[in-house]
Specification:
The chain is an alpha/beta fold and 309 residues long. The protein has 3 domains: 92 residues, Arc Repressor Mutant, subunit A, CATH 1.10.10.10; 109 residues, 3-Layer(aba) Sandwich (D-Maltodextrin-Binding Protein, domain 2), CATH 3.40.190; 90 residues, Periplasmic binding protein-like II (D-Maltodextrin-Binding Protein, domain 2), CATH 3.40.190. The chain has 11 helices and 12 strands. β8, α8 and β9 form a beta-alpha-beta unit. The termini are far apart. This is LysR substrate-binding domain-containing protein.
């Protein structure tokens, strides 16, 4: 019976459109067929079902009891099918990809790579949404997100994109005034720039093999860009992502006093579990992975010749 029903799927669709309009001519226009073709499909379906689906009442087309029952069962199903098909079509025809990312990551890595993205995928229209936090409701306006942390949140598909490599970073102007710390304990003589708490600094001191120390002063700045600007102006030492700041370190503008870097923090590329990704999203994901892999290969090379990563 299931196979027979599927054989009449087109007739069921024609019936549903005709029952919606209660007009074969209007149904024919919607279906882009002739009214006689609509009539033929309805007759074929009635013969298969063994009952009338339509009748004429006062020169007006109406549904029989059986026709009304069938229509109520079918209409939502065909609407769901139409919605699913339209979703797939839009996902694969859309040029735009909405990407949430942290402002610091965008400023110090992604923005400089966009020319490469557009050279490889000129049809991608990238909409960057800058914010430091991510909630599930954010995916109502975004396709993908790049987040920071030790692990991604629950309920998302993810790719580990790039290791952060958190380590103390200072500006050359501070070093010229106060010198460069030689040991982790020397950091007590400097102002330390924290996030909203001391957790990352405490983890770094533990990795470096010493008890946490208090800085001469301790400032708490939850925005990475503001914390970075405070460091650049010589106000203190921050834990920075050495991989993102590599060019400034190599130029001598910034100084990385210690080789110890926190290995657990990283950038993650995430999207909702079960989300149907568009072709453009898949292309962007592939490109981001390739660029991140290129950076990892570069760090492996410079680490091999003795330059701290």
């Amino acid at each position: 019976m299931a196979t027979a029903n599927l054989m009449h799927l087109n007739a069921l669709r024609v019936f549903t459109v005709a029952a919606t309009h209660l007009n074969f001519v209007q149904a024919a226009r919607d279906l882009n067929v002739s009214p006689s073709a609509v009539s033929h499909q309805i007759r074929s379906l009635e013969e298969f079902l063994g009952t009338k689906l339509f009748l004429w009442e006062s020169r007006q087309l109406a549904l029989t009891r059986e026709g009304s029952h069938l229509y109520q069962r079918l209409i939502d199903s065909f609407r769901n099918i139409g919605a699913a098909v339209e979703q797939v079509r839009q996902q694969n025809s859309s040029q735009q990809v909405n990407l949430i990312c942290r402002p610091f990551f965008s400023s110090f890595w992604l923005a400089s790579k966009l020319q490469s993205l557009w050279a490889a995928h000129p049809k991608i229209s990238l909409n960057l949404i800058h914010q430091n936090t991510l909630s599930s409701s954010d995916f109502e306006r975004a396709d993908l997100a790049i987040i920071w942390g030790k692990q991604p949140p629950a309920g998302v598909s993810f790719i580990p994109l790039m290791a952060g490599g958190l380590t103390p970073i200072m500006h050359v102007s501070l070093a010229s005034r106060a010198g460069v710390p030689k040991t982790p304990e020397d950091l007590r003589h400097f102002t330390l720039l924290h996030e909203e708490n001391r957790l990352s600094w405490n983890e770094w001191f533990e990795l470096a093999g010493t008890d946490p120390v208090d800085g001469k002063q301790n400032y708490f700045i939850d925005d990475t860009n503001v914390r970075y600007q405070s460091m650049v102006s010589g106000q203190g030492i921050m834990l920075g992502a050495s991989r993102l700041l590599r060019s400034q370190i190599e130029s001598g503008e910034l100084i990385q006093p210690f080789e110890a870097v926190l290995p657990d923090y990283r950038y993650w590329l995430v999207w909702p579990q079960g989300k149907l990704l568009s072709v453009r999203c898949k292309q962007l994901i592939e490109w981001l992975q390739q660029e991140a892999d290129n950076m990892s290969s570069y760090f492996h090379r410079i680490t091999a010749v003795g330059i701290p990563a």
